[in-house]
Design goal:
The protein is an alpha/beta fold and 432 residues long. The protein contains 18 helices and 11 strands. Helix 1 packs parallel to helix 2 and helix 7 packs parallel to helix 9.
Length: 432
């Protein structure tokens, strides 16, 4: 085939998929998860297959890129990256042809659990069931050796040794996760001074300032993690526990019912955490990226509150400013995310897709408000959402939720005042 012919075939194939996706979105208003394509299991032209316009590999790569571009420009559309999963599984095993010839299975039967797990990670994320925080042991988890015995100079961390390099790579991976909104805490059986010495190691990437909570003492780790969860304002089950000690992992699992993957060799830490899909995002908002700073500011507020005898005086000293407005397009991903988070104080427990939120924002039969809260310590982001449906002269509240970050800040009263004012204006206009 000529380049013109292959381009025409590519356009025809993409049109087929785009038509299908658009019809599904139009009819069902639901999230769409599309598999991309694994690589062909043979290459007629060898390496040339990757760049020749007639190559199967080239055609598949073009489709996968076009799928990715479509996902990047359409909300509630996600890619199940089986191209990556099949590569991890091993293409020879994945594409065992007997399963196709016998049953028309697109992959071998033993690979189906890997496929299903990867798909489930997306579904879990859509419904707000992701983990939110990573709690880390220190000795032989973030560095090699025991700092209380080896001192900061004696631990293995950095590019000087293979083991030190593996721990440094894991620290880099954890730091990248924090930049996407994963909350970081420390739970280590150590003297606090030694723990801080290790975190301030010149070759380390994770510093004390990267953590919202550092528990370095000799208390049971399950109690320390529960205390960190209470301080941060999330449930213990939202944590993932990283510890090289199998006994500690088992105790924490049994006491707190949190995930603690089996880790042993530091060179495998990244692969194990990454394949588990604990923190898989379906969207990444500005609030996600600044989440660590928001929770650090919350901890600072808690310490600041201890200075005041009167809680009212404390609230007044925060110099709070609220922004309460009808839904805005820029905040729709965050609003959708809030409606699906299990730890929000959601009075009706209703969940919404982004398509549903967009429809509500356009429907004059609804009153919808979001609330942002800022104070002297920083911006809390979007922390409250209200959706009310107008029926005759009544307003029925379909959704009212608050983020745990702003409880006891009187934000609920500000939201109620705004809801009453907007409802009154809307109903008066309707009567006129």
């Amino acid at each position: 085939d000529s380049k013109e012919q292959t381009d025409a075939l590519f356009a025809e194939q993409m049109k087929y998929f785009e038509t299908m996706w658009e019809k599904i979105a139009e009819r069902y208003h639901c999230p769409v998860i599309q598999n991309n394509f694994e690589q062909p299991y043979f290459r007629l032209m060898g390496n040339r297959d990757a760049f020749d316009c007639r190559g199967r590999v080239n055609f598949i790569n073009r489709l996968n890129t076009a799928f990715a571009d479509y996902a990047a420009s359409h909300e509630s559309f996600y890619i199940n990256d089986i191209n990556y999963v099949s590569a991890c599984y091993g293409l020879d095993k994945w594409s065992e042809s007997s399963y196709w010839h016998l049953y028309k299975y697109a992959m071998c039967v033993p690979a189906i659990p890997d496929f299903a797990f990867n798909l489930a990670a997306i579904i879990k994320s859509v419904f707000g069931k992701n983990k939110k925080a990573l709690v880390l042991d220190l000795d032989n988890t973030l560095w090699g050796g025991v700092i209380g015995e080896d001192t900061a100079e004696g631990i293995e961390l950095g590019n000087e040794t293979p083991i030190g390099e593996a721990f440094l790579a894991f620290q880099k991976y954890v730091k990248e996760q924090s930049r996407l909104g994963v909350l970081l805490t420390v739970c280590s059986k150590n003297d606090e001074e030694n723990a801080l010495d290790g975190l301030n190691h010149p070759d380390g990437l994770l510093k004390p300032s990267d953590f919202i909570s550092i528990k370095a003492n000799w208390e049971p780790k399950s109690e320390n993690i529960a205390a960190s969860a209470e301080e941060i304002g999330i449930l213990p089950e939202s944590f993932v526990f990283a510890d090289d000690n199998p006994a500690e992992r088992e105790i924490v699992r049994s006491q707190l019912n949190i995930s603690a993957p089996e880790i042993s060799s530091p060179e495998d830490y990244i692969r194990i955490f990454d394949r588990n899909g604990f923190f898989e995002p379906t969207s990444i908002s500005k609030d996600d990226i600044s989440r660590n700073e928001m929770y650090k500011a919350n901890a600072e507020r808690t310490r600041f509150a201890a200075r005041f005898e009167s809680y009212r005086d404390y609230l007044l000293s925060l110099n709070m400013t609220a922004e309460i407005e009808p839904f805005s397009a820029v905040y729709l991903p965050r609003i959708t995310q809030l409606t699906n988070k299990s730890n929000q104080f959601n009075l009706t427990t209703k969940r919404y897709t982004q398509n549903e939120i967009e429809e509500i924002s356009r429907n004059r039969g609804y009153i919808h408000l979001y609330g942002r809260l800022e104070d002297k310590f920083g911006d809390n982001g979007v922390v409250s959402v209200i959706i009310g449906k107008i029926e005759g002269g009544d307003l029925h509240i379909d959704l009212w939720l608050m983020s745990c970050r702003v409880l006891k800040r009187d934000m609920e009263y500000a939201m109620l005042d705004s809801l009453v004012a907007v409802s009154y204006t809307h109903l008066r206009a309707h009567e006129t």
